[in-house]
């Protein structure tokens, strides 16, 4: 500020000095232009030049002020329209929420050109068109949304895919998401939506290829995505198991990400597929390795249904589990009963069946024991098991199983060995 004041004082002093110089040295000045000539005093010429400069400055200032007024008017008009557009956006969103979709779309579209956020106007208007099932109009509005903000391709695409999925346009949703995945390969919501679309299409092979990316993005932990993962694995496992393609089963399992291979449900599905495919050796090896580390009733149930090449070693392993972590777990007792039944040590099998069922009633257990008792020529006990099993299936209430003692000689093919461990008789 002081600098400008000093410059102004210098200019005033210079003008004053120049004026004094002109007045103290009067003279004539002649301006000649062709045949025309003009003669005047030097002081008059100086005054005219100064006046012309002042006039030019005033003209320029007035011109700038005129343009400034126009800009100010335009700014005022834009601010007024912007304020109306913001109010219209709020009202449009309210109308959209209340279900007045026609009114919402009109409000939002009419004021979009003047809005500070035209992208939001067009997206909300597209949603309104979608809700009234005007899908062509919806896609047109989404196109305008992209034109209003070229950087919002992913945001608009996600909204479009969501609405296409919601309206059952699975092919269109898949095409939209495939394009979005090219733009943003690691976008978590794009991957999640793509998984849902593939799940609805039952495109299990494509979903299988998507599982590693879903695992990396940590998207498989919620219940919905767990269901997608389970359905995918089950479908692919069943396909290979049905054809007996155990090599493809093993190869597929090895390619799955570690978090999936450590998932309990995935392990159970894989073990069941190996059993269905007829590869009980690989199935038993998998289950045995897991049960030696941690007990699992579901895997133990499957372990008792498979065929074992060395029943004696398998029974010894099961008895070690009984001594260790599993104890007198009813699932383990049922497993031992089935193993002894396979080995035709029916007296041992009968004892373990009875102990298991008295702790945890099981419809299949009742049936298996009843059939075993028929083989052992104990029809009365077999009938008792059938009755208990039937009542349990209807009432889901367990009852104490007390078999009638029988005295009969051992058959040569069914030795009655003493159990290495005394079964727990439960109730």
TrEMBL record:
Entry keyword Repeat: yes
Biased composition (Polar residues): 405-415
Domain HemY N-terminal: 30-132
Topology within the bilayer: Multi-pass membrane protein
Subcellular location: Cell inner membrane
Presence of the UniProt keyword Zinc in the record: no
Main location: membrane
Name recorded for this polypeptide: Tetratricopeptide repeat protein
Record organism: Thiothrix fructosivorans
């Amino acid at each position: 500020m002081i600098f400008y004041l000093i410059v102004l004082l210098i200019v005033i002093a210079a003008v004053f000095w120049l004026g004094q110089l002109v007045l103290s040295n009067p003279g004539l000045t002649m301006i000649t232009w062709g045949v025309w000539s003009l003669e005047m005093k030097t002081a008059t010429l100086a005054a005219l030049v100064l006046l012309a400069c002042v006039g030019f400055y005033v003209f320029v200032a007035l011109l700038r002020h005129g343009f400034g007024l126009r800009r100010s008017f335009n700014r005022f008009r834009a601010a007024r329209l912007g304020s109306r557009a913001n109010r219209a956006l709020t009202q449009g969103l309210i109308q959209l929420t209340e279900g007045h979709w026609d009114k919402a779309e009109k409000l939002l579209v009419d004021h979009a050109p003047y809005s500070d956020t035209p992208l939001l106007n067009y997206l909300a208007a597209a949603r309104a068109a979608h809700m009234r099932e005007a899908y062509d109009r919806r896609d047109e509005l989404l196109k305008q949304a992209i034109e209003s903000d070229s950087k919002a391709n992913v945001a608009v695409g996600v909204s479009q895919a969501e609405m296409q999925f919601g309206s059952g346009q699975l092919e269109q949703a898949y095409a939209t998401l495939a394009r979005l995945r090219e733009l943003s390969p690691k976008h978590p919501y794009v991957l999640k939506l793509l998984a849902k679309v593939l799940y609805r299409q039952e495109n299990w092979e494509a979903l299988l290829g998507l599982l590693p990316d879903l695992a990396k993005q940590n998207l498989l932990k919620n219940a919905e995505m767990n269901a997608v993962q389970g359905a995918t694995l089950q479908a692919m496992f069943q396909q290979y198991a049905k054809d007996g393609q155990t090599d493809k089963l093993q190869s597929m399992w090895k390619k799955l990400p570690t978090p999936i291979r450590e998932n309990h449900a995935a392990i159970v599905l894989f073990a069941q597929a190996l059993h269905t495919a007829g590869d009980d050796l690989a199935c038993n090896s998998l289950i045995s390795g897991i049960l030696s580390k941690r007990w699992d009733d579901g895997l133990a149930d499957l372990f008792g249904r498979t065929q074992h090449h060395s029943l004696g070693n398998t029974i010894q392993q099961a008895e070690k589990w009984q001594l260790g972590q599993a104890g007198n777990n009813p699932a383990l007792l049922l497993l031992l009963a089935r193993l002894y039944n396979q080995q035709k040590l029916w007296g041992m099998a009968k004892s373990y069946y009875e102990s298991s069922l008295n702790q945890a009633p099981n419809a299949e257990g009742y049936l298996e024991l009843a059939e075993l008792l028929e083989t052992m020529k104990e029809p009365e006990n077999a009938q008792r098991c059938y009755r208990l099993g039937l009542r349990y299936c209807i009432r889901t209430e367990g009852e104490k199983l007390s078999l009638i003692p029988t005295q009969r000689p051992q058959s040569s093919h069914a030795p009655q060995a003493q159990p290495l461990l005394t079964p727990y008789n439960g109730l």
